[in-house]
Amino acid sequence: MFVHNKRLQYTVRVAAPDPGLANLLLEQFGGPQGELAAAMRYFTQGLAECDPGRKDLLMDIATEELSHLEIIGSIVGMLNKGAKGRLAEGVDQEAELYRSLTGAGNDSHITSILYGGGPALVNSGGVPWTAAYIDTIGEPTADLRSNIAAEARAKMIYERLINVTDDPGIKDALTFLMTRELAHQQSFEKALHAIQPNFPQGKLPGMAEFTNRYFNLSQGEGDTRGPWNEGDDWEYIESPEPAVDGGDGSATVQLSEEDSELLQQMQDRTRSDPMADPVTGADLGSGLVPKQP
User: Fold this and answer.
1) CA R_g for the chain
2) How many other CB atoms are there within 10 angstroms of residue 144's CB atom?
3) Residue 104 φ then ψ, to 5°
4) Is 68 exposed, middle or buried (0-12, 13-18, 19+ CB in 10 A)?
5) Per-residue pLDDT tens for 170-205?
6) What does residue 59 show for φ and ψ, rounded to 5 degrees?
7) What local confidence, expressed as pLDDT, does residue 287 receive?
8) Cβ contact 37:134 at 8 Å
9) Domain membership flag for residue 74
């Protein structure tokens, strides 16, 4: 059961309307790193979770993400208040109204015209929200790592948004939202490491001969050694040969006699003639082919 409290999780004060900034903030409303994507990610994980601790964690954070969605949506609505009234009532001359929506090179006219200045489920470029943003795989040790990365990406978007506004009230609210991304990262980190062991993900082990082998496949100037490829944990292969399994590196398949015959027929029918040099449409179009008498 969900109960909506009409007060926001954090007090928001907007100094003045700014349609351009509103458009940028839509990135955290309907974008891939935004609050709706986070809420849906954690809700769907929580509903499928069997561990009571992780389930409680995921449902708590999912619900908080909806609170953050409400904060962002409220800011977007307030930033668009001026443009919304001007569009609805047509008080400006057409050119003046258009300039007010597209000042400083922003694309706020897209969301203002299409959605009337309200917070739409699109990103800052107008691309609709999609469930494809959710990359849950159903394995907690993999999903928790993905959640940590998602919170880190959202934190970076908030940092960039903070840097493009001089409105102190909006800076304050965005700093709060950014800080909560840090808190969620820490919770997910603790939940991940409460599962021991948590690497490798899933149940099946890797192939022992390849798990700690590093292939130097990007060779030349800039080759670098570090803890990611050197030390007792790693076997470093300087110049790996093809077919690291010791085979010939070919791909084979066992076919029935009938399938083999049909495949041979197709190969015979579609075989290229390496000696042919036919005149093509491109040759004729180039004007370089002599006309036949």
Assistant:
1) 29
2) 25
3) 60, 20
4) buried
5) 999 999 999 999 999 999 999 999 999 999 999 999
6) -70, -35
7) 83
8) yes
9) yes
- Provide the pLDDT for residue 200: 94
Q: Indicate whether 186 and 217 sit together in one domain.
A: no
Q: What is the amino acid identity at position 108?
A: S
CB count within 10 Å of CB 176 equals 16
Q: Does the residue 262 lie in any domain? A: no
Assigned token pair, 168: 């102190």
Domain with 31, as residue range(s), is 19-193
Cα(100)–Cα(85) distance, rounded to whole angstroms? 12
CA distance 155 to 116: 29
User: How many structural domains are present in the chain?
Assistant: 2
Beta bridge partners of 215: 237
Is 277 part of any domain?
no
- For residue 27, count CB atoms less than 10 angstroms from its CB and return exposed for 0-12, middle for 13-18, buried for 19 or more: buried
Does 178 share its domain with 54?
Answer: yes
**Are 54 and 108 members of one domain?**
yes
Structure tokens at 73: 């949506």
For residues 68 and 37, give the distance between their C-alpha atoms in angstroms, rounded to a whole number: 11
Same domain for 93 and 151, yes or no, is yes
Q: Are 221 and 183 within one domain?
A: no
Q: What is the dihedral of CA 218, 219, 225, 227, to 10 degrees?
A: 20
Q: Looking at the structure, tell me whether residues 186 and 209 fall in a common domain.
A: no
Per-residue pLDDT reduced to its tens digit, 5-24: 999 999 999 999 888 899 89
**pLDDT for 55-80, tens place per residue?**
999 999 999 999 999 999 999 999 98
φ/ψ (deg, to 5) at 235: -105, 115
Residue 285 lies in a domain: no
**What pTM was computed for the model?**
0.83
